[in-house]
Design brief:
Number of domains: 3
Oligomer: single chain
CATH topology of the largest domain: Beta-lactamase
Structural class: alpha+beta
Largest sheet: 7 strands, mixed
Length: 602
Protein backbone atom coordinates (compact mmCIF):
# COMPACT_ATOMS: atom_id res chain seq x y z
CA UNK A 1 0.00 0.00 0.00
CA UNK A 2 2.70 2.39 0.95
CA UNK A 3 4.66 1.47 -2.12
CA UNK A 4 1.67 2.25 -4.39
CA UNK A 5 1.31 5.64 -2.77
CA UNK A 6 4.98 6.27 -3.39
CA UNK A 7 4.60 5.62 -7.13
CA UNK A 8 1.51 7.80 -7.36
CA UNK A 9 3.34 10.67 -5.73
CA UNK A 10 6.26 10.28 -8.15
CA UNK A 11 3.96 10.40 -11.19
CA UNK A 12 2.27 13.57 -10.07
CA UNK A 13 5.67 15.23 -9.58
CA UNK A 14 6.79 14.19 -13.07
CA UNK A 15 3.59 15.62 -14.66
CA UNK A 16 4.05 18.92 -12.85
CA UNK A 17 7.66 19.16 -14.08
CA UNK A 18 6.65 18.56 -17.66
CA UNK A 19 3.93 21.19 -17.30
CA UNK A 20 6.42 23.74 -16.03
CA UNK A 21 8.83 23.00 -18.87
CA UNK A 22 6.11 23.34 -21.47
CA UNK A 23 4.84 26.55 -19.86
CA UNK A 24 8.32 28.02 -19.77
CA UNK A 25 8.78 27.13 -23.45
CA UNK A 26 5.59 28.95 -24.43
CA UNK A 27 6.55 32.00 -22.32
CA UNK A 28 9.94 32.19 -24.06
CA UNK A 29 8.34 31.65 -27.43
CA UNK A 30 5.71 34.31 -26.76
CA UNK A 31 8.35 36.76 -25.61
CA UNK A 32 10.36 36.12 -28.75
CA UNK A 33 7.30 36.61 -30.94
CA UNK A 34 6.38 39.84 -29.20
CA UNK A 35 9.96 41.08 -29.57
CA UNK A 36 10.01 40.14 -33.23
CA UNK A 37 6.70 41.88 -33.85
CA UNK A 38 8.00 44.95 -32.07
CA UNK A 39 11.13 44.84 -34.20
CA UNK A 40 9.11 44.50 -37.40
CA UNK A 41 6.30 46.92 -36.59
CA UNK A 42 8.21 49.58 -34.71
CA UNK A 43 11.96 49.53 -35.23
CA UNK A 44 12.08 48.17 -38.80
CA UNK A 45 8.76 49.67 -39.87
CA UNK A 46 10.25 52.10 -42.40
CA UNK A 47 12.44 49.42 -43.96
CA UNK A 48 9.57 47.05 -44.58
CA UNK A 49 7.28 49.87 -45.62
CA UNK A 50 9.84 50.80 -48.26
CA UNK A 51 10.09 47.15 -49.39
CA UNK A 52 6.34 46.86 -49.60
CA UNK A 53 6.20 50.16 -51.46
CA UNK A 54 8.74 48.89 -53.99
CA UNK A 55 6.58 45.81 -54.55
CA UNK A 56 3.20 47.49 -54.78
CA UNK A 57 3.79 51.22 -55.36
CA UNK A 58 4.82 53.07 -58.49
CA UNK A 59 6.83 56.25 -57.70
CA UNK A 60 7.34 58.85 -60.40
CA UNK A 61 9.36 61.99 -59.75
CA UNK A 62 8.00 65.29 -60.99
CA UNK A 63 11.01 67.22 -62.19
CA UNK A 64 10.83 70.93 -61.34
CA UNK A 65 11.46 73.57 -63.97
CA UNK A 66 14.82 75.27 -63.35
CA UNK A 67 14.56 79.00 -62.79
CA UNK A 68 15.88 81.55 -65.25
CA UNK A 69 18.70 84.05 -64.84
CA UNK A 70 17.49 87.41 -66.11
CA UNK A 71 19.01 90.82 -66.80
CA UNK A 72 17.36 94.16 -67.37
CA UNK A 73 17.65 96.52 -70.31
CA UNK A 74 17.11 100.19 -69.59
CA UNK A 75 16.39 100.98 -73.22
CA UNK A 76 13.06 99.12 -73.26
CA UNK A 77 12.52 98.19 -69.61
CA UNK A 78 12.31 94.50 -70.46
CA UNK A 79 13.96 91.48 -68.84
CA UNK A 80 16.11 89.17 -70.97
CA UNK A 81 17.37 85.68 -70.07
CA UNK A 82 21.05 84.95 -69.68
CA UNK A 83 20.05 81.39 -68.80
CA UNK A 84 16.76 79.63 -69.52
CA UNK A 85 15.46 76.19 -70.54
CA UNK A 86 14.74 74.45 -73.80
CA UNK A 87 13.39 71.12 -74.96
CA UNK A 88 16.00 68.54 -75.91
CA UNK A 89 15.97 64.90 -77.11
CA UNK A 90 18.08 61.91 -76.13
CA UNK A 91 18.32 58.88 -78.43
CA UNK A 92 18.94 55.60 -76.63
CA UNK A 93 19.11 51.93 -77.55
CA UNK A 94 17.84 48.67 -76.06
CA UNK A 95 20.32 46.14 -77.53
CA UNK A 96 18.37 43.10 -76.37
CA UNK A 97 15.56 44.15 -78.74
CA UNK A 98 17.88 44.14 -81.76
CA UNK A 99 18.02 41.27 -84.25
CA UNK A 100 20.72 42.85 -86.43
CA UNK A 101 22.75 45.11 -84.13
CA UNK A 102 25.63 45.68 -86.56
CA UNK A 103 23.35 46.72 -89.42
CA UNK A 104 21.38 48.97 -87.09
CA UNK A 105 24.62 50.60 -85.94
CA UNK A 106 25.70 51.29 -89.55
CA UNK A 107 22.37 52.73 -90.63
CA UNK A 108 21.86 54.81 -87.48
CA UNK A 109 25.42 56.20 -87.56
CA UNK A 110 24.76 57.49 -91.07
CA UNK A 111 21.60 59.32 -90.01
CA UNK A 112 23.09 60.78 -86.82
CA UNK A 113 26.51 61.41 -88.41
CA UNK A 114 28.34 59.70 -85.59
CA UNK A 115 30.99 57.00 -85.09
CA UNK A 116 29.71 53.61 -86.26
CA UNK A 117 32.32 51.66 -84.28
CA UNK A 118 31.15 53.18 -81.00
CA UNK A 119 27.54 52.31 -81.78
CA UNK A 120 28.47 48.78 -82.82
CA UNK A 121 30.26 48.19 -79.52
CA UNK A 122 27.20 49.35 -77.61
CA UNK A 123 24.66 47.41 -79.67
CA UNK A 124 26.56 44.09 -79.41
CA UNK A 125 25.84 43.98 -75.66
CA UNK A 126 23.00 41.50 -76.24
CA UNK A 127 21.37 41.60 -72.83
CA UNK A 128 21.87 45.32 -72.23
CA UNK A 129 18.56 47.08 -71.51
CA UNK A 130 19.82 50.66 -72.02
CA UNK A 131 22.61 52.43 -73.90
CA UNK A 132 22.73 56.16 -74.62
CA UNK A 133 23.28 56.77 -78.32
CA UNK A 134 23.35 60.57 -78.40
CA UNK A 135 22.26 63.43 -76.17
CA UNK A 136 20.79 66.77 -77.21
CA UNK A 137 19.82 65.57 -80.68
CA UNK A 138 18.26 68.20 -83.01
CA UNK A 139 14.58 67.63 -83.67
CA UNK A 140 15.26 67.20 -87.42
CA UNK A 141 17.48 64.19 -86.76
CA UNK A 142 15.03 62.81 -84.20
CA UNK A 143 12.33 62.87 -86.85
CA UNK A 144 14.65 61.21 -89.36
CA UNK A 145 15.43 58.38 -86.92
CA UNK A 146 11.73 57.98 -86.14
CA UNK A 147 10.89 57.72 -89.85
CA UNK A 148 13.52 55.00 -90.33
CA UNK A 149 11.95 52.97 -87.52
CA UNK A 150 15.18 51.36 -86.33
CA UNK A 151 14.71 48.30 -84.15
CA UNK A 152 15.62 48.79 -80.51
CA UNK A 153 15.98 52.57 -80.84
CA UNK A 154 13.95 54.84 -78.56
CA UNK A 155 13.69 58.50 -77.58
CA UNK A 156 13.26 60.51 -74.42
CA UNK A 157 12.44 64.18 -74.16
CA UNK A 158 14.48 66.10 -71.59
CA UNK A 159 15.07 69.68 -70.52
CA UNK A 160 18.40 71.30 -71.35
CA UNK A 161 19.91 74.64 -70.30
CA UNK A 162 20.01 77.41 -72.89
CA UNK A 163 22.28 80.47 -72.76
CA UNK A 164 20.86 82.78 -75.45
CA UNK A 165 23.20 85.75 -74.93
CA UNK A 166 26.55 84.77 -76.41
CA UNK A 167 29.85 86.14 -75.09
CA UNK A 168 28.50 87.95 -72.04
CA UNK A 169 30.61 86.31 -69.32
CA UNK A 170 30.44 82.62 -68.58
CA UNK A 171 32.46 83.31 -65.43
CA UNK A 172 29.57 85.42 -64.20
CA UNK A 173 26.79 83.01 -65.20
CA UNK A 174 28.44 79.65 -64.47
CA UNK A 175 26.99 76.49 -66.02
CA UNK A 176 24.83 73.43 -65.35
CA UNK A 177 26.49 70.00 -65.39
CA UNK A 178 26.18 66.55 -63.83
CA UNK A 179 26.96 66.32 -60.11
CA UNK A 180 28.45 63.38 -58.21
CA UNK A 181 25.07 61.66 -58.21
CA UNK A 182 24.56 62.24 -61.93
CA UNK A 183 21.85 64.85 -61.34
CA UNK A 184 22.33 68.11 -63.23
CA UNK A 185 23.38 70.90 -60.90
CA UNK A 186 24.65 74.46 -61.13
CA UNK A 187 28.38 75.07 -60.87
CA UNK A 188 30.31 78.33 -60.51
CA UNK A 189 28.85 81.79 -61.05
CA UNK A 190 25.17 82.47 -60.50
CA UNK A 191 24.20 78.92 -61.55
CA UNK A 192 26.36 77.44 -58.79
CA UNK A 193 25.93 79.94 -55.98
CA UNK A 194 22.14 80.02 -56.32
CA UNK A 195 21.62 76.41 -57.38
CA UNK A 196 19.16 75.56 -54.59
CA UNK A 197 16.92 78.48 -55.53
CA UNK A 198 17.18 77.88 -59.28
CA UNK A 199 16.73 74.09 -59.05
CA UNK A 200 13.52 74.15 -57.03
CA UNK A 201 12.13 71.07 -55.29
CA UNK A 202 11.04 67.87 -57.02
CA UNK A 203 7.56 66.48 -56.46
CA UNK A 204 6.39 62.85 -56.55
CA UNK A 205 3.41 60.82 -57.74
CA UNK A 206 2.96 57.64 -55.70
CA UNK A 207 0.53 55.13 -57.22
CA UNK A 208 -0.11 51.36 -57.17
CA UNK A 209 1.26 48.87 -59.70
CA UNK A 210 0.38 45.31 -60.57
CA UNK A 211 2.66 42.28 -60.54
CA UNK A 212 4.04 43.15 -63.98
CA UNK A 213 4.98 46.62 -62.85
CA UNK A 214 2.22 48.49 -64.68
CA UNK A 215 0.25 51.31 -63.11
CA UNK A 216 -3.19 50.37 -61.76
CA UNK A 217 -5.46 53.07 -63.18
CA UNK A 218 -8.10 52.74 -60.42
CA UNK A 219 -5.56 52.38 -57.61
CA UNK A 220 -4.83 54.87 -54.90
CA UNK A 221 -2.62 57.76 -56.01
CA UNK A 222 -0.88 60.43 -53.94
CA UNK A 223 0.77 63.57 -55.28
CA UNK A 224 3.51 65.21 -53.27
CA UNK A 225 3.73 68.76 -54.55
CA UNK A 226 7.14 70.13 -55.49
CA UNK A 227 8.09 73.63 -56.50
CA UNK A 228 9.67 75.02 -59.65
CA UNK A 229 12.90 76.96 -59.34
CA UNK A 230 12.96 80.69 -58.72
CA UNK A 231 13.88 83.26 -61.36
CA UNK A 232 16.86 85.42 -60.42
CA UNK A 233 16.99 88.97 -61.76
CA UNK A 234 20.52 90.38 -61.80
CA UNK A 235 21.56 94.00 -61.36
CA UNK A 236 23.48 93.61 -64.64
CA UNK A 237 22.29 95.85 -67.46
CA UNK A 238 22.12 93.92 -70.72
CA UNK A 239 23.48 96.72 -72.93
CA UNK A 240 26.25 97.67 -70.49
CA UNK A 241 27.31 94.04 -70.14
CA UNK A 242 27.44 93.53 -73.90
CA UNK A 243 29.51 96.68 -74.38
CA UNK A 244 31.88 95.83 -71.52
CA UNK A 245 32.50 92.30 -72.79
CA UNK A 246 33.03 93.45 -76.36
CA UNK A 247 35.44 96.19 -75.32
CA UNK A 248 37.57 94.10 -72.96
CA UNK A 249 37.97 91.35 -75.57
CA UNK A 250 39.13 93.88 -78.15
CA UNK A 251 41.53 95.55 -75.69
CA UNK A 252 43.14 92.24 -74.68
CA UNK A 253 43.57 91.36 -78.36
CA UNK A 254 44.86 94.81 -79.27
CA UNK A 255 47.56 94.84 -76.61
CA UNK A 256 48.42 91.14 -76.87
CA UNK A 257 47.61 90.96 -73.15
CA UNK A 258 47.32 87.79 -71.11
CA UNK A 259 43.89 88.79 -69.83
CA UNK A 260 41.75 91.72 -68.77
CA UNK A 261 38.71 92.66 -66.69
CA UNK A 262 36.18 95.45 -66.48
CA UNK A 263 33.57 96.06 -63.77
CA UNK A 264 30.98 98.85 -63.44
CA UNK A 265 29.07 99.58 -60.23
CA UNK A 266 26.52 102.08 -58.95
CA UNK A 267 28.38 103.87 -56.12
CA UNK A 268 25.21 104.86 -54.27
CA UNK A 269 23.88 101.29 -54.02
CA UNK A 270 26.70 98.83 -54.71
CA UNK A 271 24.72 97.27 -57.58
CA UNK A 272 26.95 95.78 -60.28
CA UNK A 273 25.92 97.02 -63.74
CA UNK A 274 28.52 95.14 -65.74
CA UNK A 275 31.22 92.55 -65.03
CA UNK A 276 33.28 90.85 -67.70
CA UNK A 277 36.72 89.34 -68.21
CA UNK A 278 38.72 88.00 -71.12
CA UNK A 279 39.46 85.20 -71.81
CA UNK A 280 36.14 83.69 -70.83
CA UNK A 281 34.26 80.46 -71.55
CA UNK A 282 30.97 79.49 -73.17
CA UNK A 283 28.60 77.93 -70.59
CA UNK A 284 27.22 75.61 -73.26
CA UNK A 285 30.73 74.24 -73.90
CA UNK A 286 32.26 74.41 -70.44
CA UNK A 287 34.09 71.15 -71.06
CA UNK A 288 36.43 72.93 -73.46
CA UNK A 289 38.14 75.09 -70.80
CA UNK A 290 41.88 74.57 -70.59
CA UNK A 291 42.15 74.46 -66.79
CA UNK A 292 39.65 74.55 -63.95
CA UNK A 293 41.04 77.95 -62.92
CA UNK A 294 39.49 79.39 -66.10
CA UNK A 295 36.09 78.83 -64.50
CA UNK A 296 36.84 81.19 -61.60
CA UNK A 297 35.87 84.84 -61.92
CA UNK A 298 39.11 86.87 -61.78
CA UNK A 299 37.21 89.98 -60.68
CA UNK A 300 36.35 88.36 -57.36
CA UNK A 301 38.98 85.65 -57.05
CA UNK A 302 42.33 86.89 -58.37
CA UNK A 303 44.29 89.24 -56.10
CA UNK A 304 47.15 91.38 -57.40
CA UNK A 305 49.42 94.23 -56.34
CA UNK A 306 47.37 97.24 -57.47
CA UNK A 307 50.14 99.80 -57.89
CA UNK A 308 49.37 103.50 -58.02
CA UNK A 309 45.57 103.22 -58.06
CA UNK A 310 46.08 102.55 -54.33
CA UNK A 311 47.47 106.07 -53.83
CA UNK A 312 43.96 107.51 -53.68
CA UNK A 313 43.36 105.42 -50.53
CA UNK A 314 46.49 106.82 -48.88
CA UNK A 315 45.71 110.43 -49.80
CA UNK A 316 42.07 110.17 -48.69
CA UNK A 317 43.20 108.70 -45.35
CA UNK A 318 45.60 111.64 -44.84
CA UNK A 319 42.85 114.11 -45.74
CA UNK A 320 40.33 112.44 -43.41
CA UNK A 321 42.78 112.45 -40.48
CA UNK A 322 43.57 116.09 -41.33
CA UNK A 323 47.27 115.31 -41.53
CA UNK A 324 47.38 116.92 -44.99
CA UNK A 325 45.38 119.16 -47.31
CA UNK A 326 45.51 119.28 -51.12
CA UNK A 327 47.98 122.17 -50.81
CA UNK A 328 50.30 120.57 -48.24
CA UNK A 329 53.82 120.48 -49.63
CA UNK A 330 56.92 118.31 -49.23
CA UNK A 331 60.32 118.20 -50.90
CA UNK A 332 60.54 115.44 -53.49
CA UNK A 333 64.14 114.31 -53.78
CA UNK A 334 63.18 111.54 -56.19
CA UNK A 335 64.15 108.72 -53.80
CA UNK A 336 63.72 107.54 -50.21
CA UNK A 337 66.18 105.39 -48.22
CA UNK A 338 64.16 103.06 -45.94
CA UNK A 339 65.46 100.00 -44.05
CA UNK A 340 68.38 99.56 -46.46
CA UNK A 341 66.03 99.85 -49.45
CA UNK A 342 65.89 102.67 -51.98
CA UNK A 343 62.45 103.66 -53.27
CA UNK A 344 62.25 105.89 -56.36
CA UNK A 345 59.53 107.62 -58.31
CA UNK A 346 58.37 105.89 -61.47
CA UNK A 347 59.67 108.78 -63.61
CA UNK A 348 63.08 108.62 -61.91
CA UNK A 349 62.96 112.38 -61.27
CA UNK A 350 63.42 114.65 -58.26
CA UNK A 351 60.60 117.18 -58.58
CA UNK A 352 61.42 119.46 -55.65
CA UNK A 353 58.61 121.12 -53.69
CA UNK A 354 55.31 119.40 -54.53
CA UNK A 355 51.71 119.68 -53.31
CA UNK A 356 49.54 116.68 -52.45
CA UNK A 357 47.51 117.38 -55.58
CA UNK A 358 50.70 117.05 -57.61
CA UNK A 359 51.48 113.78 -55.82
CA UNK A 360 48.40 112.26 -57.47
CA UNK A 361 48.75 114.07 -60.79
CA UNK A 362 52.40 113.00 -61.20
CA UNK A 363 51.90 109.72 -59.29
CA UNK A 364 54.86 110.27 -56.97
CA UNK A 365 55.81 107.33 -54.77
CA UNK A 366 57.77 109.59 -52.43
CA UNK A 367 54.64 111.69 -51.91
CA UNK A 368 52.48 108.83 -50.66
CA UNK A 369 55.34 107.73 -48.40
CA UNK A 370 55.28 111.26 -46.96
CA UNK A 371 51.53 110.96 -46.27
CA UNK A 372 51.90 107.52 -44.72
CA UNK A 373 54.54 108.86 -42.33
CA UNK A 374 52.20 111.66 -41.24
CA UNK A 375 49.59 109.03 -40.39
CA UNK A 376 51.93 106.54 -38.74
CA UNK A 377 51.94 102.82 -39.41
CA UNK A 378 49.08 101.88 -37.08
CA UNK A 379 46.63 104.58 -38.22
CA UNK A 380 47.49 103.96 -41.86
CA UNK A 381 46.72 100.25 -41.47
CA UNK A 382 43.40 101.03 -39.74
CA UNK A 383 42.31 103.20 -42.66
CA UNK A 384 43.23 100.51 -45.17
CA UNK A 385 41.25 97.95 -43.17
CA UNK A 386 38.30 100.37 -42.98
CA UNK A 387 38.20 100.48 -46.79
CA UNK A 388 37.59 96.72 -46.70
CA UNK A 389 40.98 95.45 -47.81
CA UNK A 390 42.23 92.19 -46.34
CA UNK A 391 38.75 90.67 -46.08
CA UNK A 392 36.02 89.50 -48.41
CA UNK A 393 33.43 92.01 -49.57
CA UNK A 394 30.45 89.73 -48.92
CA UNK A 395 29.64 89.55 -52.63
CA UNK A 396 27.18 86.78 -53.49
CA UNK A 397 29.39 84.93 -55.96
CA UNK A 398 32.14 82.63 -54.76
CA UNK A 399 34.96 81.80 -54.71
CA UNK A 400 35.98 85.26 -53.51
CA UNK A 401 39.50 86.22 -52.52
CA UNK A 402 40.29 88.41 -49.51
CA UNK A 403 43.56 89.84 -50.76
CA UNK A 404 46.49 90.20 -48.37
CA UNK A 405 47.53 93.28 -46.36
CA UNK A 406 49.51 91.42 -43.69
CA UNK A 407 52.64 93.27 -44.74
CA UNK A 408 51.23 96.40 -43.08
CA UNK A 409 51.52 94.65 -39.69
CA UNK A 410 55.16 93.58 -40.15
CA UNK A 411 58.09 95.21 -38.43
CA UNK A 412 60.15 97.68 -40.40
CA UNK A 413 59.10 100.90 -42.09
CA UNK A 414 59.53 99.65 -45.64
CA UNK A 415 56.29 97.65 -45.69
CA UNK A 416 53.98 100.53 -44.85
CA UNK A 417 55.99 102.80 -47.16
CA UNK A 418 55.62 100.55 -50.21
CA UNK A 419 52.03 99.77 -49.23
CA UNK A 420 51.21 103.47 -49.50
CA UNK A 421 51.61 103.26 -53.28
CA UNK A 422 50.13 99.78 -53.71
CA UNK A 423 53.16 97.53 -53.60
CA UNK A 424 53.74 94.58 -51.24
CA UNK A 425 50.01 94.05 -50.62
CA UNK A 426 47.29 92.50 -52.77
CA UNK A 427 43.67 93.31 -53.53
CA UNK A 428 40.98 91.97 -55.83
CA UNK A 429 39.51 94.17 -58.58
CA UNK A 430 36.17 94.07 -56.75
CA UNK A 431 37.76 95.31 -53.51
CA UNK A 432 39.46 98.28 -55.13
CA UNK A 433 36.27 99.08 -57.05
CA UNK A 434 34.15 99.20 -53.87
CA UNK A 435 36.82 101.32 -52.13
CA UNK A 436 36.65 103.87 -54.93
CA UNK A 437 32.88 103.57 -54.71
CA UNK A 438 33.15 104.91 -51.15
CA UNK A 439 35.09 107.94 -52.42
CA UNK A 440 32.37 108.50 -55.05
CA UNK A 441 29.61 108.05 -52.45
CA UNK A 442 30.59 110.65 -49.88
CA UNK A 443 32.70 108.25 -47.84
CA UNK A 444 30.07 105.49 -47.44
CA UNK A 445 31.27 101.99 -48.35
CA UNK A 446 28.55 99.84 -49.94
CA UNK A 447 28.42 96.06 -50.08
CA UNK A 448 28.62 95.09 -53.77
CA UNK A 449 25.79 92.87 -54.97
CA UNK A 450 24.59 91.37 -58.22
CA UNK A 451 21.12 89.93 -57.43
CA UNK A 452 18.41 92.55 -57.81
CA UNK A 453 15.40 90.34 -57.14
CA UNK A 454 14.42 86.71 -56.57
CA UNK A 455 11.01 85.80 -58.05
CA UNK A 456 9.64 82.58 -56.59
CA UNK A 457 7.40 80.13 -58.44
CA UNK A 458 4.41 81.06 -56.27
CA UNK A 459 4.61 84.67 -57.46
CA UNK A 460 6.21 86.17 -54.36
CA UNK A 461 9.47 88.03 -54.67
CA UNK A 462 12.37 89.25 -52.58
CA UNK A 463 14.43 92.33 -53.48
CA UNK A 464 17.96 93.12 -52.35
CA UNK A 465 18.35 96.23 -50.23
CA UNK A 466 21.55 98.26 -50.57
CA UNK A 467 23.73 97.95 -47.47
CA UNK A 468 26.25 100.40 -46.05
CA UNK A 469 29.10 98.38 -44.53
CA UNK A 470 31.36 101.19 -43.38
CA UNK A 471 32.44 104.82 -43.55
CA UNK A 472 36.20 104.76 -44.03
CA UNK A 473 36.49 108.51 -44.65
CA UNK A 474 34.35 111.61 -44.26
CA UNK A 475 32.36 113.25 -47.05
CA UNK A 476 34.81 116.17 -46.83
CA UNK A 477 37.78 113.90 -47.46
CA UNK A 478 35.99 112.17 -50.34
CA UNK A 479 35.20 115.52 -52.00
CA UNK A 480 38.78 116.73 -51.65
CA UNK A 481 40.35 113.57 -53.07
CA UNK A 482 37.76 113.58 -55.88
CA UNK A 483 38.91 117.03 -56.90
CA UNK A 484 42.53 115.85 -56.84
CA UNK A 485 41.64 112.86 -59.06
CA UNK A 486 39.85 115.17 -61.51
CA UNK A 487 43.22 116.89 -61.89
CA UNK A 488 44.79 113.49 -62.66
CA UNK A 489 42.47 113.15 -65.66
CA UNK A 490 42.70 116.79 -66.72
CA UNK A 491 46.43 117.28 -66.25
CA UNK A 492 48.16 113.97 -65.56
CA UNK A 493 48.54 110.36 -66.60
CA UNK A 494 44.78 109.83 -66.81
CA UNK A 495 44.11 112.25 -69.67
CA UNK A 496 43.06 109.47 -72.04
CA UNK A 497 40.27 108.50 -69.63
CA UNK A 498 38.58 111.88 -70.06
CA UNK A 499 35.12 112.32 -71.60
CA UNK A 500 34.33 115.58 -73.41
CA UNK A 501 31.64 117.54 -71.57
CA UNK A 502 32.16 115.85 -68.18
CA UNK A 503 34.46 115.99 -65.18
CA UNK A 504 35.95 112.54 -64.64
CA UNK A 505 37.80 111.54 -61.45
CA UNK A 506 40.25 108.66 -61.59
CA UNK A 507 43.73 107.26 -61.17
CA UNK A 508 46.12 105.16 -63.24
CA UNK A 509 48.21 102.34 -61.85
CA UNK A 510 50.99 100.34 -63.48
CA UNK A 511 51.86 97.51 -61.12
CA UNK A 512 54.80 95.15 -61.21
CA UNK A 513 54.24 91.39 -60.90
CA UNK A 514 56.06 89.51 -58.12
CA UNK A 515 58.17 86.55 -59.15
CA UNK A 516 56.54 83.19 -58.51
CA UNK A 517 59.78 81.89 -57.03
CA UNK A 518 62.22 84.01 -55.05
CA UNK A 519 62.11 87.70 -54.20
CA UNK A 520 61.70 90.63 -56.51
CA UNK A 521 59.56 91.31 -59.57
CA UNK A 522 59.30 89.93 -63.06
CA UNK A 523 61.11 91.79 -65.81
CA UNK A 524 58.95 93.57 -68.41
CA UNK A 525 55.65 92.26 -67.01
CA UNK A 526 53.14 94.80 -65.73
CA UNK A 527 49.44 95.10 -64.93
CA UNK A 528 47.75 98.30 -66.03
CA UNK A 529 44.69 99.54 -64.13
CA UNK A 530 42.45 102.58 -64.19
CA UNK A 531 39.75 103.23 -61.59
CA UNK A 532 37.44 106.21 -61.58
CA UNK A 533 33.94 107.64 -61.67
CA UNK A 534 31.83 110.27 -63.44
CA UNK A 535 30.38 112.82 -63.31
CA UNK A 536 32.73 113.74 -60.48
CA UNK A 537 30.15 115.94 -58.72
CA UNK A 538 27.41 113.27 -58.68
CA UNK A 539 28.78 109.93 -59.94
CA UNK A 540 26.44 107.69 -61.92
CA UNK A 541 29.00 104.87 -61.98
CA UNK A 542 32.38 103.78 -60.68
CA UNK A 543 34.48 101.55 -62.93
CA UNK A 544 37.73 99.59 -62.94
CA UNK A 545 39.61 98.51 -66.06
CA UNK A 546 42.49 96.05 -65.67
CA UNK A 547 44.84 94.84 -68.44
CA UNK A 548 47.25 92.02 -67.54
CA UNK A 549 50.67 92.00 -69.16
CA UNK A 550 50.08 94.08 -72.28
CA UNK A 551 52.87 93.41 -74.78
CA UNK A 552 52.81 96.63 -76.82
CA UNK A 553 52.80 99.25 -74.02
CA UNK A 554 54.05 99.42 -70.45
CA UNK A 555 52.00 102.09 -68.75
CA UNK A 556 48.32 102.04 -67.78
CA UNK A 557 47.81 105.47 -69.39
CA UNK A 558 48.23 103.69 -72.75
CA UNK A 559 46.22 100.52 -71.98
CA UNK A 560 43.61 100.75 -69.22
CA UNK A 561 42.95 104.52 -69.35
CA UNK A 562 41.84 104.69 -73.01
CA UNK A 563 39.41 101.81 -72.52
CA UNK A 564 38.03 103.51 -69.43
CA UNK A 565 37.44 106.68 -71.46
CA UNK A 566 35.58 104.85 -74.22
CA UNK A 567 33.40 102.93 -71.76
CA UNK A 568 32.77 106.03 -69.63
CA UNK A 569 31.52 107.96 -72.66
CA UNK A 570 29.17 105.11 -73.57
CA UNK A 571 27.87 104.88 -69.98
CA UNK A 572 27.20 108.59 -69.60
CA UNK A 573 25.23 108.70 -72.82
CA UNK A 574 23.40 105.42 -72.22
CA UNK A 575 22.43 106.43 -68.67
CA UNK A 576 21.19 109.78 -69.96
CA UNK A 577 23.55 111.94 -67.89
CA UNK A 578 23.53 115.47 -69.37
CA UNK A 579 26.89 117.16 -70.05
CA UNK A 580 28.04 119.43 -67.22
CA UNK A 581 30.45 121.70 -69.07
CA UNK A 582 31.27 123.05 -72.50
CA UNK A 583 34.09 121.35 -74.25
CA UNK A 584 36.44 121.70 -77.16
CA UNK A 585 37.74 118.45 -78.67
CA UNK A 586 41.22 118.02 -77.16
CA UNK A 587 44.38 117.71 -79.21
CA UNK A 588 45.94 114.24 -79.30
CA UNK A 589 48.38 113.84 -76.41
CA UNK A 590 52.10 113.82 -77.17
CA UNK A 591 53.55 110.57 -75.97
CA UNK A 592 57.24 109.69 -75.51
CA UNK A 593 58.85 107.52 -78.20
CA UNK A 594 59.58 104.83 -75.62
CA UNK A 595 58.35 104.15 -72.10
CA UNK A 596 60.78 105.18 -69.36
CA UNK A 597 62.31 102.50 -67.19
CA UNK A 598 61.61 102.81 -63.49
CA UNK A 599 61.76 101.03 -60.20
CA UNK A 600 58.51 100.90 -58.28
CA UNK A 601 55.11 101.60 -59.79
CA UNK A 602 53.42 104.40 -61.67
Amino acid sequence: MGRREYHMAGGEHSKKGRYLVVSFFFVVLGTALVSKLAQLQIFDYQVFEARASNQHDLVAEIEPVRGRILVQDRSDGQLYPLATNREAWTVYAVPREMKEPEKTARDLAEVLETDVDILTTKFLKKDDPYEVVMKDVPIEKVEAVQSADFEGIHFSRVTARLYPEKNVSGQLIGFVGPGNDGVLTGKYGVEGNFNDLLAGKAGQIVGEKDASGRRIAMGDEQVQTGMDGADIVLTIDRAIQYEACSRIRKAVEQHGADSGSIVIMEPKTGAILGMCSSPDFDPTEYGKVNTISDLNNPVTFTAYEPGSIFKAMTLSAGLDAQKISPDTTYNDTGAEEIDDFTVRNSDGKANGIQTMKEVLVKSLNTGTIFVQRQLGKDLFRKYIEAFGFGKKTGFELTPEGAGNIESLSRKGDIFAATGSYGQGLTVTPLQILTAYGALANGGSLMRPYIVQEIIYADGTSEKTRPEVVGNPVSSRASRLVTGMMVAVVEEGHGSRASVPGYWVAGKTGTAQVPKKTGRGYEENITIGSFVGYAPASDPAFVMIVKIDNPKDVQWAESSAAPLFGVMAEFLLRYLGVPPERDFTPPLPPTLPQSDPVSSGTE
